[in-house]
């Protein structure tokens, strides 16, 4: 019964078409991956020189600068979250203040009635 329902919804030809399309996309992705630039091994001496400069003088490397940028991006996201939280908290405080004023007036009216 399950096989009959399965065949009703998707035909074998559709599945084969999807499979061939997926294979074609996989080949295109592989070809695209092949044309991407590769790390140039000839720069090893320069990288070694930068490492020596970093050790001797504390010169920043590309990895250090990238880490700094990532840290700054994280801090900016946290800053925007904090700003949003403060704005929301301010709204809650204003709402609570209004509710407190209304309740204070109600208590004053009820106490005057009870007297």
Strand portion = under 5%
Helix content: over 70%
Taken from the alpha-carbon principal axes, the silhouette is flat
Instruction: Give the biggest beta sheet.
Output: none
Order of helices and strands: HHHH
Q: Residue ranges: pLDDT <50 for 5 or more in a row? A: none
Query: Distance between termini?
Result: 81 Å
Structure annotation, total helices: 4
**Overall pLDDT, averaged?**
77
How many beta-strand runs? 0
Structural class based on helices, strands and sheet pairing: mainly alpha
| Total domain units | 2
Task: From the alpha carbons, calculate the radius of gyration and give it in angstroms.
Answer: 33 Å
Secondary structure elements and pairings:
Blueprint: H1 2-9, H2 12-35, H3 44-57, H4 62-114
């Amino acid at each position: 019964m399950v096989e009959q329902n399965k065949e009703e919804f998707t035909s074998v030809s559709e599945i084969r078409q999807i499979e061939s399309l997926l294979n074609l996309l996989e080949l295109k992705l592989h070809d695209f991956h092949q044309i991407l630039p590769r790390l140039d091994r000839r720069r090893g001496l320069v990288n070694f020189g930068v490492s020596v400069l970093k050790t001797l003088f504390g010169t920043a490397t590309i990895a250090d600068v990238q880490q700094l940028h990532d840290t700054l991006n994280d801090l900016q996201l946290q800053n925007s979250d904090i700003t949003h939280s403060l704005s929301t908290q301010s709204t809650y405080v204003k709402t609570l203040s209004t509710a407190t004023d209304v309740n204070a007036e109600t208590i004053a009216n009820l106490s005057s009635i009870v007297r």
